[in-house]
């Protein structure tokens, strides 16, 4: 069984699309939503889709992901952002490959079909495929036994997904599945596509160079 863990915070608008995409899959799944102290109707929305809803006072993403994994009963864990959704057949793809790899992610496609946005999606997917470094908006998945061995997500304020995927590679083969996962373009729309691309590139380079995650987060989310 696949356990799909959805962290959310103030996502009442996009959360239904995410959860409906999971529940529409014709495979056995367990849906878990972990709310991080939302001030909107996210909890109410989540409870209308699944009985497995955790409400945390801590809005830290890594804590939400780990809390969901703690109660999950599936052999494979899929972490899906609340502003993302699955294309039909994604879970079937995952079930077909899950026993052969330790984990991985899906290709990502922004939900805006403009040419530059398609280029952004393509570039990010190529980066993930060739480096084995996966971003959370691509639906990171991992065998539950491996997740326990790794020790879950590290309590970082940002880049916890990148740090986790880099540790994951040391446990065996990972893969980028076709998917795709459809992710919201709202940050690109709000802050500008080129500036957001700069922020992503900055965050990756700064993390690799050892810059404090706290400083990276401050710059990355300054206008959010």
What do these coordinates show?
This protein is α/β, with parallel strands linked by helices and 224 residues long. It has a single domain (2-187), classed as Spore Coat Polysaccharide Biosynthesis Protein SpsA, Chain A, CATH 3.90.550.10. Helices cover 44% and strands 21% of the residues. The chain has 10 helices and 8 strands. Strands 3-2-1-4-7-6-8-5 form an 8-stranded mixed sheet. α9 runs antiparallel to α10. The chain is globular. The model has no long low-confidence stretch (mean pLDDT 95).
Layout of helices and strands:
Blueprint: E1 2-8, H1 15-23, E2 29-36, H2 42-47, E3 53-56, H3 61-71, E4 76-79, E5 84-86, H4 90-97, E6 103-110, H5 115-131, E7 140-143, H6 144-150, H7 160-169, E8 174-183, H8 186-191, H9 193-208, H10 213-220
Parallel strand pairs: 1-2, 1-4, 2-3, 6-8
Antiparallel strand pairs: 4-7, 5-8, 6-7
| CATH fold name | Spore Coat Polysaccharide Biosynthesis Protein SpsA, Chain A
CATH top level class name = Alpha Beta
* Approximate shape: globular
Q: Major beta sheet, specifics?
A: 8 strands, mixed
| Contiguous helical run count | 10
The average pLDDT is 95
Q: Tell me the domain tally.
A: 1
Low-confidence regions: none
